[in-house]
Amino acid sequence: MKISFNINGETKSVDVDGQTPLLWVIRDILDLKGTKFGCGKAACGTCTIHVDGEAVRSCSFAAKFAEGKEITTIEGLSTDENNLHPVQQAWIEEIVPQCGYCQPGFMMATAALLNKIPKPTDEDIDDNIVNICRCGTYYRMRKAIHRAAEIGGKTNA
Amino acid sequence: MKKTHLITIVALLLLLGIGINFNGATAKKAPVKTNIVTTPPPPVPHPDPSIAAFQEMMKVVAHKRCVNCHPAGDRPHQGEDSHVHNFGVQRGEDGHGTVALKCSTCHQKENNDFSGVPGAPHWHLAPRSMGWEGLSHREIALAMTDTEKNGGRSIEEIAKHLTEDPLVLWAFEPGLNHEGVPREKPPISKEAYIEAVKKWVETGAKIPEE
Question: Chain A residues with CB inside 8 Å of B178's CB?
Fold first, then answer.
């Protein structure tokens, strides 16, 4: 079936089986490789993207539900290397990634959180960021989330 | 052979014989295999049609497919063992999850049998006042019909919710779990359940004592 949506500011149409996970449309058809496959069961969060501004696990999101939606992937968080998204900037400053595989999902989940709660507490982070990192970078991510909130606060001031 | 030796041998043989007999007497008999299948007789319906309908309806309403999302607290349950939902998932302010970890982060409008994530329209938790976990059938029904707890719904509106809401009826088409195994369905059919709910309401929605 033909499915049209906006992704990272560009209108795209794809012709796929409607049950195809949106993750594979993003990676294999649109060639946006930043979004990763982890568990395939919506459990780890590595494939997190935004659909109409909400965090969604794309491995378990049928492509047919993307019709008419605004989609953002890690590539669309900021398209200007000189003007990074606060989450990207904070992740660099705190040197968060180890192997890095799960980080795009964490960053997208964090961006969704900051959209709703610009200054999250540790409890807010615990309640909302439940992705899985096998390298155990949680401590650095927590620091980076607070740092991203600081950067975002300054940017928006 | 000496006489004393003969007596000893005879005594030993006697003791051995007693032992063999003793073991034979205590050995369990192997069950006899037959082709006869015994099934318990079906329960006799309650003579009061309203209570009989209530008992049928409760086979669904009190089933894990419903109660998992009618928790006593703020955390949903999941699975056939009704364990607390993985990943620290919470109710949030409106029953749709926390701000960046909503039910819809993973659950969509329909089951996803490839990932094993269940789905139905407006997937969310029942309000705290409708927490049924740990309640008896009578207590569930009393809460369900209490307008202070059920959002001011009349008995007819409750019946409509119970028989038409796609999230409620998802219980009969719960899809496959993450291992590709069909989720357990309630013990009666959707049609029998809907008929029971309607019958219960039509006959006065009686709630029997425990």
Answer: 41, 43
Exposure string for A11-46, b = 16+ CB within 10 A, e = fewer: ebebebeeebbbbbbbbeebebebbbebbbbbbbbb
Residue A81 included in any domain: no
ipTM reported for the complex surpasses 0.90: yes
B 71-90: CB under 8 A from A: 86-90
Distance from the Cα of B97 to chain A's closest Cα (Å) equals: 9
A118 and A149 both lie in a single domain: yes
Any CB–CB contact under 8 A between A61 and chain B?
yes
> With an 8 Å Cβ cutoff, is B177 touching chain A?
no
The pLDDT value recorded for residue B19 is 47
Considering Cα of A60, then A64, then A65, then A67, what sign does the dihedral take?
positive
Kindly give the residue spans of alpha helices, DSSP state H, lying in chain A.
22-24, 86-93, 103-116, 122-128, 138-156
In a domain, A101, yes or no: yes
Of the residues A76, A100, A122, the one at which a domain ends = A76
In a domain, B98, yes or no: yes
Strand partners, A105: none
User: Structurally, how many domains does chain B consist of?
Assistant: 1
* Structural domain span for residue A47: 2-76
The pLDDT score that the predictor gives to residue A81 is 87
Residue pLDDT tens, chain A, 157 long:
999 999 999 999 999 999 999 999 999 999 999 999 999 999 999 999 999 999 999 999 999 999 999 999 999 999 888 999 999 999 999 999 999 999 999 999 999 999 999 999 999 999 999 999 999 999 999 999 999 999 997 665 4
Candidates B78, B85, B98, B124: best to mutate against A (most CBs of A within 10 A) is: B98
Neighboring chain B residues of A60 at a CB cutoff of 8 Å: 106, 108, 112, 114-115, 117
> What was the pLDDT predicted at A156?
54
The structure tokens 């307008």 sit at B147
**pLDDT value, residue A94:** 97
Take residue B135 and report the two structure tokens written for it: 């309640």
Determine contact: A6 vs chain B, CB below 8 A.
Answer: no
